[in-house]
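Lecture 7 notes: from sequence to structure.
We start with the chain below.
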Amino acid sequence: MEAPPANPSLTTEAHVDPKLDALITLAMPAIVELRQDLHAHPEPGFQEYRTGERVAELLESYGLTVRRMADTGVVGDLTGSADGATIALRADMDCLPIHEMSVLPYKSTQPGLMHACGHDGHTANLVGTARVLSRMRDQLPGRVRFIFQPSEENVQGARRMIADGAMDGVDAILALHDWNDTEPGQISIKSGPIMASADTFRLTLSAKGGHASAPHLTVDPVLVGAHIVTGIQTIVSRETPPCDAVVVTIGSFQAGATDNVIPHIATLLGTVRTLSPTMREEVPIRLKRLIEGICAAFRADFTLDYTMGCSPTVNERTMTDLVARVGQDLLGPENVFRYTEPSMGGEDFSEYLKFAPGAMFRLGIGGTEPIHSPRFNFNDAALPTGI
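Predicted structure tokens for the same chain:
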């Protein structure tokens, strides 16, 4: 990751508007309290009822026009004092099915659920942004739309929000995601592909079970599945151009219940990540061909259910450059980085980019615990930068 080239039109010092700085400072106690409250009360996809209510109440108190969408989603519109474009800002609200292992005073109160991806920070950040901009309405041309989306982890929420009108009339859209390879006060961004598609599949193998002492009288789905797990790796190592990024992972392999029975069913769950639309279309074809061949060789039957999730997230260059310029202006050029390697994680922010140009940038939070860790915690010191 490297700093972007110096822009001669920008000063080498950050210069935050004094009013903006004062409003952010004034907002911090309430926004930190909100973030920690959301962390303590995580809610999974399409069950963000409490979260949505808190967000809607706060937006209404700031004078925004608020609508509810996609069951638990929230959209707030802030109209400025002059004509201009409509810029959307998006945050996700859902948690993960992970049991928190931290000792935080505001650790999750819901066993088996926690904010392990920073969506509590994303939501609090965007609420803080709405609060600050609502107090600068007289300086604001056009309109800002604040989109609080449910169910990002299941890559279902964005489509529901869009179907309910979240992107109607939007000219451009921006978002952020916490990232711990930079520190609070820093951001990073790149144009082009930044995150992968996220597709899933369920493979059910049907064979002939029997007694473990007589394997010759059976067709063992565990053995068939093991060959498939091994064979799948050749899709990446032998069927994908070396410069194309593809990930095929089996995350679950379930079969049998005891040691002396060969089961008749095995179920494998997997995910496929790609950056290329062409490879995204090719992988399921190759996967099915490989499974067909192995099952034919071992005399097993199969059912393959393949689900297309979200598309690759591709930052539009103009919006990417805008974020970099504004970031340099507000934070100083030394705190804005251009990273080069995309993540193979998925993000349904990609769905919004089908309707308007936009970009997602990484908000530095520092720390050593990666996202999706049971000890992860969003760093509140990053909130002023995000706002």
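Points to note: The first strand starts at residue 65 and ends at 69. The chain has a mean pLDDT of 95.
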